[in-house]
Amino acid sequence: MREKYVLEYSSAVVDEPVVYTLIKRFDIKVNILRAEISSGQEGSMLVELEGESEKLAASRDYLASLSVSLMPISRSLSVREDSCVHCGACTGVCFSGCLSMEREAWELQVDRDKCIACALCVEACPFGAIELKFGE
Amino acid sequence: MAKSYEEINARIARGEAVVLTADEVSRMAAEASPAEIARKVDVVTTATFGAMCSSGCFINFGHTSPPLRMESITLNGVPLFGGVAAVDAYIGATEVSPDDPSYGGAHLIEALVRGDELLLKARGKGTDCYPRREIETWIRKDLVNEITMVSPRNAYQNYAAATNTTDKVLHTYMGSLLPRKGNVNYSTSGQLSPLLNDPYLRTIGVGTRVFLAGAQGFVSWRGTQFNTEKPRNDRGIPESNAATLMLTGDVKQMSADYLRAAYYEKYGVTLYIGIGIPIPVLDEDMAAAVSVRDRDIPALICDYGTEGHPAIARTNYEALRSGFVEIAGKKTRTAPLSSLKKAREIAQALKAQVASGVFPLAAPVQALPERSAVSSLPVRERSR
Question: How far apart are CA B103 and CA B305, in angstroms?
């Protein structure tokens, strides 16, 4: 199983070797896609976790015990439907393939699991319709 | 077999007119000849919904008592041009608030269309006929006199696509352009686009009625930077930026479904406008023109990383619409900036309006120029 999460750290946990523990104790493959962490401050990290489902569940419990919040990447990105005009400007910068145009109706389609939280789309949208929860 | 405007309007009045969108007639053209299309189809509706920076509107606020000659004017903090008579002003779409460069004239125009209340502040010198020196009040579209869109340059004929050969992201009016030709952005509705369905502007001229953001507006003049001198392909379509239209219409009649304020990161504010133009199929030549398909429309890809934005590749809109084009052997992702979905909605809405008779067609009062070139601005010493 493979799952993508945005992890939000409090300053108290930044010194904890979380990734080491996930690998060593829970046998999880950790792919860090984006991280903004500095010692003594809060941090955010986009990770892809791969492993057996029980081990993934156990690693989620471990993270919860540290008060590291886990948000599935699918909930990190949102597009406001009333602001989006389906122009496609966001698709030009989305190299992960999360945002693309459906080529019949020419509507924006969002494959959230492909998001890598690069946030280029947030800037590229002329209507401020895209929100990405990562850090801040 | 030629048809006149009168014959087409009579057929519309009798409920017999055949009105198709430009997409529909292009599909029909796969099997029907121009002669058949000229016989069967009376009107073809075209549309676009994209960013048009050179847009704006005049607003007349009405006089207060005692009156003020408004000189320095802001609306929600955005400066207006007040160098016209006492209570007239021009809202330029790209003017921005000094406090928030992502909020500007386009947002004011959208807010007016939506019926929102806006804070008007104005100052004057105080004169014998205009003794008041300042005012602060809330306005709304039903509390002012006219709000008239007068946009100097809309509906560009075949605006070129953009890419970036530098090593840095460029933030442009053609969107975010990724380094080293990371993407190609284009802004057109292609085979649905008004001026690509009548490339020599036989039916579009001064006085042509247009769908302007949901209102009925008119072509008031040639647009600025109107250019007839671009090379054309065998269908007469210019290879890049050519003709433009100056459009006028009543902002109070417009709908926010077809008009949206936009902000391009680190470029500025602009206005997305929905424009639709019905084209009468007067004869076989017009039938052939409105049958244009994306593959027939040439597109230049220009490098926004080099001064003067030189073209570095040629393609067509079918290729751009496919999602990828090749530039010098490199497969590059393409993305639209104008909304084809919205353009299609407008073409359908206009089709219903034309067929029902509420959107009559007429020959232009005057044709747009057959020859007009664009020059650049020389930086020079004064002539002696």
Answer: 27
Which tokens in the block code for residue B25? Answer: 């007639």
B175:A92 CB<8 A: yes
Residue B82 has pLDDT above 60, yes or no: yes
What is the H or E stretch that residue A23 is in? Answer: helix A18-26
pLDDT confidence band for B129 (50 / 70 / 90)? very high
Burial call A49-87: b when 16+ CB within 10 Å, e when fewer: bebeeebbebbbebbeeeebeebebeebbebeeeebbbb
The H or E element that residue B300 is part of is strand B298-303
CB atoms inside a 10 Å sphere around CB B330:
11
CB pairs under 8 A between A and B: 84
Residue B343 class from Cβ within 10 Å (0-12 exposed, 13-18 middle, 19+ buried)? buried
ipTM: 0.94
Amino acid at site A3: E
pLDDT digits (tens, 9 = 90+) for B6-43: 999 999 999 999 999 999 999 999 999 999 999 999 99
Distance CA B334, CA B134 (A): 51
Please tell me the distance from the alpha carbon of residue B256 to that of residue B261, in angstroms, as a whole number. Answer: 9
The residue to which tokens 């809330």 are assigned: B138
Sign of CA dihedral B140, B143, B149, B150: negative
Alpha carbon separation from A11 to A43, A44, A70, B210, B214 (Å, rounded):
7, 11, 16, 59, 53
Which residues of chain B does A95 touch, with a Cβ-Cβ cutoff of 8 Å? 178, 182, 333
Number of other residues whose CB lies within 10 A of the CB of residue B358? 10
Three-state SS at B151: strand
Q: Do residue B178 and residue A93 have CB atoms under 8 angstroms apart?
A: yes
Segment A15-38, tens digit of pLDDT:
788 889 999 999 999 999 888 877
Delimit the domains of chain B by residue range.
5-53+151-356, 62-144
Residue B108 near residue B67 (C-beta atoms within 8 A):
no
- Contacts of A8-12 with C-beta under 8 Å, sequence gap 24+, read A8/A42, A8/A43, A8/A44, A8/A68, A8/A69, A8/A71, A8/A135, A9/A37, A9/A42, A9/A43, A9/A44, A9/A45, A9/A68, A10/A42, A10/A67, A10/A68, A11/A40, A11/A41, A11/A42, A12/A67
B176 closest CB neighbour out of A86, A93, A105? A93
The pair of three-digit structure tokens given for residue B266, joined into one six-digit string? 């680190």
Burial B215-237 (b: 16+ CB within 10 A, else e): bebbbbbbbebbbbebeeeeeeb
Nearest chain B alpha carbon to A97: B333
